[in-house]
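dumping this here so i dont lose it
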């Protein structure tokens, strides 16, 4: 459902939430190595997220990427919307061009509630909550 770009963005943001701060900024190269994604691709993703004010960045010898309390209280749906938009969530599960509640495909009524629940959870839970799950070993980044 999500593009590789969104998948890498989510992993990168959670990694930053766990390992970076205003005093300890991380470069895209270090993050890319740790989460095992292509560095040039992650650098572009981080720039896009930074422009959208989802993560922070600073330039210079001690520059890099990080999250403040404000960004940590954000949600992963904002990350996905910034990278992919909502198109991935609105596509038909079996590829029909005009699938909707009024014109459903064969599995629309099964998939739509699951999609709506996923979107609601991604909006409700903060980046900090996802990072805490990872820190406690309930989820993994690599």
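and the seq i came up w/
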């Amino acid at each position: 459902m999500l593009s590789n770009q969104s998948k890498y963005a989510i992993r990168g943001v959670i990694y930053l939430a766990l390992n970076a701060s205003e005093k300890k900024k991380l470069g895209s190269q270090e993050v890319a190595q740790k989460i095992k994604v292509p560095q040039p691709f992650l650098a572009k993703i981080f720039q896009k997220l930074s422009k959208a004010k989802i993560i922070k960045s600073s330039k210079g010898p001690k520059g890099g990427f990080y999250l403040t309390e404000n960004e940590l209280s954000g949600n992963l749906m904002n990350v996905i919307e910034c990278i992919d938009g909502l198109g991935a969530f609105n596509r038909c599960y079996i590829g029909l061009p005009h699938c909707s509640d009024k014109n459903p495909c064969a599995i629309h009524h099964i998939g739509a509630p699951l999609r709506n629940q996923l979107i609601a959870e991604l909006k409700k839970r903060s980046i900090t909550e996802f990072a805490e799950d990872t820190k406690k070993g309930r989820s993994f980044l690599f």
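The longest strand covers residues 56-58.
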